[in-house]
Amino acid sequence: MTNFAVTGAQWGDEGKGKVVDILAKRFDFVVRYQGGHNAGHSVVFQGERFALHVLPSGIFNPKAINLIGNGVVVDPFALIKEIEGLRQRGIEVSPENLRISDRAHMILPYHGIIDRFLDSGIQKIGTTGRGIGPAYEWKAARRGLRFCDTAHLDYFRERVGQELERIQQHYHEIDELRGLDLEGVMSRLEPAIEFLAPHITDSVTLLAKAREQGSSILFEGAQATLLDLDFGTYPYVTSSNSCTVGVCAGAGVPPSTVDEVVGIFKAYSTRVGEGPYPSELHDEIGEAIRKAGFEFGTTTGRPRRCGWLDLVALKYGHHLNGFSTLAMMKLDVLDALPEIRVCHAYELRGEVIDHFPASITDLKEVKPCYTTLPGWELPTTHIRAYDDLPEKAKGYISFIEEKVGCLIGLVSVGPDREQTIIRDKRLQD
Ligand code: IMP
Fold it and tell me: Which residue ranges make up each domain of the chain?
């Protein structure tokens, strides 16, 4: 069976939810391997819109097993809220179709408090405030608690107590932290632990058996390439490996497991939070794109920064992820524009470069070099076949394919599942 990874090629919010939704039906397993409830995947199921944050998108497919992998950081309260929200809307979530890796780390109440406190000071990242960064920090510092620890409540309780004591001393200036006491924290955590216990699984064995039996697996990325802890616009990144490189460590599978990598990008670009963004628009075109694309965060509701498509960044993403095919989302948002610009290189202190710099200082200084292409100025939302797209829209697509060196196998022309043009047979049902 062919296993797929779906990866964001920009700064997130590319529309991975829609592509995963199109693909998910055919997979036996859907696995989240990094991030946490900072993600917001919009999925339309039976005409209703759902926003998933930490649950894998295969949850709507009654036959799929959904796994929250070891590389995900899980806030038990947020997860329970999401499960209950789905159950109230008639979606079945059970220990049969939702598994949580016993090695996944937990986001505990103090992580969110510390996240929001640190992000209000100097070097503001503009995080989602969900405790993601601190939970990964605890993991790397070997102070985290994992789902396997919840089976040993005395140990779990002792460790939470030690952590509370330590951080209340370390962050003595945070009033909200002083308000946390072990009894209070444990009295909230214990019922949550009991609720989630039947879902906890040895995920390494689960996926090894799945592979032995020839089951198909979809690895669902959250956030995106340019937010990756190692390869993104550091330090304005999330705290996990959100490139495809994260799959092996975050799901516990060998590298040969991933057969196809689908890179998702928007026909333009957006970014939420702080950090460099070379092709950002600060004018009425940026505003028009935000309005037409309804560019407001699924998780936080924040208005997204908008700009032209950046091919230097997209090509960098291709080098890192090795896309088998690209999915271009929201082409229709550009329908009304008389001309469209694409950033094909950067100018850095008088020199033209075509690579994505590592340094934050360089990234803040680069100036985008643009190619201007004619807009098609025709509606595309009703189009279902590639050949029916306006010639100028096809010209835009081929220009990108040529510069990046990868086929655009799917073009999305609207939010609904049907508003999709599939050119690459590997992406067909
Ligand atoms: P954190 O992941 O909450 O630590 O936030 C770090 C950065 O990643 C911030 O700029 C967030 O806006 C951004 N971020 C995190 N999750 C998402 C997402 O799902 N889509 C877009 N940006 C995200």
Answer: 4-101+200-260, 105-196, 265-427
- Choose the residue to mutate in 113, 116, 127 for probing ligand 1, maximizing ligand atoms within 8 Å of C-beta: 127
Residue with the larger pLDDT of the pair 46 and 7: 7
Question: Which of the following CATH numbers is that of domain 265-427: 3.40.50.300, 2.30.110.10, 3.90.170.10, 1.10.443.10?
Answer: 3.90.170.10
Question: Is the distance from the beta carbon of residue 51 to the nearest atom of ligand 1 less than 6 Å?
Answer: no
Q: What is the 3-state secondary structure (H, E, C) of 287-340?
A: HHHHHHCCCECCCCCCECEEECEEHHHHHHHHHHHCCCEEEEECHHHHCCCCEE
pLDDT digits (tens, 9 = 90+) for 72-125: 999 999 999 999 999 999 999 999 999 999 999 999 999 999 999 999 988 899
- CATH dotted code for 4-101+200-260: 3.40.440.10
Q: Is the pTM of this model over 0.90?
A: yes
Counting residues of the chain whose pLDDT is more than 90, the rounded percentage is: 89
Residue 36 near ligand 1, beta carbon < 6 Å? no
| Residues identified as active-site | 13, 41
Q: Which structure tokens are listed for 175?
A: 């009033």
CB 312 within 8 A of CB 276: no
Residue 390's alpha-carbon distances to 265, 359, 375, 381, 396, in angstroms, are 20, 40, 10, 12, 10
Q: Assign domain 105-196 to its CATH architecture.
A: Orthogonal Bundle (1.10)
Average pLDDT on 327-351 reads: 98
Q: What is the pLDDT of residue 428?
A: 86
